[in-house]
Amino acid sequence: MRGNILASDGISADTLRTIYQKMYTRRFIDGERDVISMLPNRRVISRSAVDKQSALLTQHKGDGSKELVHADTVIFATGYRNAHAPLSDRLTRRLDWEGDEIRVGADYAAQWDAPRGQGLFIQNATRNQKGLADPNLSLMAWRSRQIADAILGRKQQVCNVPSFVNWRGDDRSDAFLKSA
């Protein structure tokens, strides 16, 4: 996996610049305050939810300072290293696991015993299941579309051709070799 790092960690200076400029425009030109906050180098100590808003108590990993953050949406951007989201033990037990990864479907929905309509979607944490492309930034829009379609209940046009790349190393390659 380490040898493929440059093939999958596809962020560029142009992409970073575009993201920064969009955030700058919304805040300083359009006057939209508190639209987005980026809080790097922090860990979540606790989380609670009130009226569809999350309250996170975070701690800075450098100086140890703590802060309370309120947000409508929280995105854990853990970088290119797989990092487990701060899930409760109760939730962790309800999830299906494949090794140390949460098992996901084609639409990146976690496989678990949730009530119908309660989705938990996972991105950039399924490299053993999805392969080298999983953390690739250039495929983020495609993965996001899979998730958005699942949330909105839209049917996707599915290509039923099996991949010729076997990332998992399971028995499928043996079946292929026997048929050749």
What's the topology here?
Layout: H1 5-8, H2 13-29, E1 42-50, E2 53-60, E3 66-71, H3 89-94, E4 97-98, E5 101-102, H4 127-130, H5 140-152, H6 172-179
Antiparallel strand pairs: 1-2, 2-3, 4-5
3D architecture notes:
It contains six helices and five strands; from the N terminus they run H-H-E-E-E-H-E-E-H-H-H. 29% of the residues lie in helices and 15% in strands. It has helices spanning 5-8, 13-29, 89-94, 127-130, 140-152, 172-179, and strands at residues 42-50, 53-60, 66-71, 97-98, 101-102. By secondary structure, the protein is an alpha+beta fold. The protein is globular, with a radius of gyration of 19 Å. The two termini are 29 Å apart. The longest helix is centred in the first third of the chain and has 17 residues, at 13-29. The strands form two sheets. A three-stranded antiparallel β-sheet has the order 1-2-3, with no helix packed on it.
What are the key terms here?
180 residues, alpha+beta, 3-stranded antiparallel β-sheet, two-stranded antiparallel ribbon, 15% strand
Write a compact overview of the structure shown.
By secondary structure, the chain is of the alpha+beta class. Helix content is 29%, strand content 15%.
